[in-house]
Amino acid sequence: TSAHRPPATRTTCGYCGVGCTLDVVTAGGEVTAVLPARDGPVNQGHACVKGRFTHGFLTSPERLTRPLLRRGGRLEPVGWEEALGHVARGLRAALADGGPDAVAAISSARATNEENYLVQKFMRTVIGTNNVDNCSRLCHSPSAAGLTASFGLSGGTDGFDDVERSDCLLVVGANPVEAHPVVGARLLRSVLRGAGLVVADPRAVGLAEHADVHLRPRPGTNVALFHGLAHVLLAEGLTDEEFLRERATGLDRLTELLADYPPDRVADITGVPAADLVTAARLYGEAECPAIVYGLGVTEHLHGTDGVRSLANLAILRGAVGTGRGYGVNPLRGQNNVQGASDMGALPDLLPGYGRVVDPTARARAEAVWGVPVPGRPGLRIPEMFAAARTGELRALWVIGEDVCATDPDANEVAAALDACPLVVCSELFLSETARRADVVLPVASWLEKDGTFVNFDRRFQRVRPAVPPPGEARSDFDVVHAVASAMGAGLGCPTPAAALAECGRLAPAFAGVSHDRLDREGAVPWPCRDPGRPGETKLYRDRFATADGRAHLSAAPYLPPGEHPDDDYPLILVTGRRWAHYNSGSMTRRGANIVLDPVDLLDLHPDDAHRYAVRDGEPVTLESRHGRARLVARIGEQTASGQVFCSFHFPASGVNRLTSGHADTVTSCPEYKVTAVRVIAS
Ligand code: SF4
């Protein structure tokens, strides 16, 4: 029982967006064990290998412990004063050369809410630009855009405790067994209790073997697949007519569009047999309380926002959102705080709490709290920052906790952008691929070494507490942002993380009821939570949707093809994603002094393709696209369909993101990581 546990620091896992509550045991200033909290609201006593065991990076000899400054082409250790002085001079020079919009910052979905709040406040109030973005641009920006357009708010519609009670789960473009293992286990628990399961994913992901039906669409054909399911719902009368009449809009246009998506035509586009499509639609359509859970297989496409919206159509047609007749549409967030980084306004067009920078009322609310004017022109998105750096318009870029040279698409172009930018500042734990190209590298604290909050995938604020101090001279990002502002001769207020969250609540009503004190008492509080005396809302839209007219909006976007297709030169489609033991660029999970799991970067390919291209299991292969080349080790198996290959992006040395293209979601600029035409060459 908990009574037998050693004294520990309670915190929230800093890897994926599930938000497991962990008890961190220390001795002599070092972490000796990480235990999943039995009363953790999401994890209920469970954790995956990442949360439990991959804390060895804390004491890695590769940790950055002093600031580094580039001199004569080499990065050399310097004191904080010298590093901060260089940053301040560089920022002032960029402001003098190009004005506020010549400066940009990429904030971090690994950092706390309070750190993200402070970064965007620094950019807007000290620099005077909206050029601030975070890595949700690269993963769930289509969720924010799509869910907002369909329902009015960017978050998932239902709490996961309810989702788990669903009698039919539609899991789309996600591999929770590997990427969100605690959620994967809870979904499996639902299925073992009798819930129906439809999995839609090109790969035979872990949940697929438990599915009633597994749909394997060709990568890039999601919108057609979802329209096919919607077609069957309409054709077979599996819709909620009262809900559609009273609470939705757009049915006529969608009905007209769906006439073009009968199962046979959808089968031609997607490769999914028409009979399977009908079976899946009936399972979802006839369930009492269906729920949709989805991942980056929906968003990371040329038409990712259309994918989210056409998936949301299914819940609207069924009346399974905002009612007791279903548990809505719920994105699985990849990084630990990708929801919170966006909630806090680390976005070029949105302020904390999602007020639009172009809206004078939203700006006035922020200006009343901050006491300075807020720029009204939307800033640059991450890909636009790199483009502006290449053309010389961007003169200074601060990259916080993202290894953009390893994880952003078309990585050769990203590297060229950083090389062209007169000042690149990088806040990091390790000398990442990005840090290697920076002019100044600032050593910062990890999630186990700092204070604040994260927001998990089902909108719960939870506390983050330091279990050990950061090494050497490393500081929290919170302290570093304050220090840079101070070096610029400016102040940001909010001296503590608790004060920063309190200030955020004053300009973002949806978070006004959340505070560090309350979280210390209650453990977790979901937003919206407008009142410190009332619980937050786990289920959204009970009374009305948050759209201007209070209705859910059906989308009638047609299927459009992806940016790349297989051809004679590049006959295979590469899909990238996560493995169970690693997190993003692997900077933490590859450096465990205690344990390193899955240490080799593998390319999964089907036996037919292995035979066709003379690839042998366990041997090195070269992968080439129109954009670059990578080296991996082949793993032959049937999890990946013939004509497709799969690999992770956890090993920067492999160069996988040199392969991926610049194609991006037409609404949000989210990269199309899931469809790259490649060829494989046996070595
Ligand atoms: Fe939980 Fe995700 Fe951390 Fe694993 S990585 S322990 S599932 S929060």
TrEMBL record:
Keyword terms of this UniProt record: 2Fe-2S, 4Fe-4S, Iron, Iron-sulfur, Metal-binding, Quinone, Repeat, Ubiquinone
The 4Fe-4S Mo/W bis-MGD-type domain, residue ranges: 6-62
Keyword Repeat applies: yes
Repeat in keyword set: yes
Cofactors (names): [2Fe-2S] cluster
Family named by the database record: In the C-terminal section; belongs to the prokaryotic molybdopterin-containing oxidoreductase family.
Job of this protein: NDH-1 shuttles electrons from NADH, via FMN and iron-sulfur (Fe-S) centers, to quinones in the respiratory chain. The immediate electron acceptor for the enzyme in this species is believed to be ubiquinone. Couples the redox reaction to proton translocation (for every two electrons transferred, four hydrogen ions are translocated across the cytoplasmic membrane), and thus conserves the redox energy in a proton gradient.
The protein, known as: Formate dehydrogenase subunit alpha
Source organism per UniProt: Streptomyces prasinosporus
